[in-house]
Amino acid sequence: MAAKCDVCAKGPGFGHNKPWSKKKTNRRWNPNIQRVRATVNGTPQRVHVCTSCLKAGKVSR
């Protein structure tokens, strides 16, 4: 499953791990994606939604 919200299109953020030795390695921060049942165009469907959209009420369950 791709780490992308179907409502706001929020995706992963990229950066570096930076330990004490200063050797940077790549890493990514995934958004908190939940698979919920929501009504889309009057029919219930399973959509991948981030928790910030759920908390803001952007999804009708």
UniProtKB/TrEMBL annotation:
GO terms for biological process: translation. Keywords: Ribonucleoprotein, Ribosomal protein. It comes from the Bacteria. Gene3D superfamilies: Ribosomal protein L28/L24. One of its GO terms (cellular component) is ribonucleoprotein complex. One of its GO terms (molecular function) is structural constituent of ribosome. InterPro entries: Bacterial_rp_bL28, Ribosomal_bL28, Ribosomal_bL28/bL31-like_sf, Ribosomal_bL28_bact-type, Ribosomal_bL28_sf. SUPFAM superfamilies: L28p-like (SSF143800). PANTHER family: 50S RIBOSOMAL PROTEIN L28, LARGE RIBOSOMAL SUBUNIT PROTEIN BL28A. Belongs to the bacterial ribosomal protein bL28 family. HAMAP family: Ribosomal_bL28. This is Large ribosomal subunit protein bL28. The gene is rpmB.
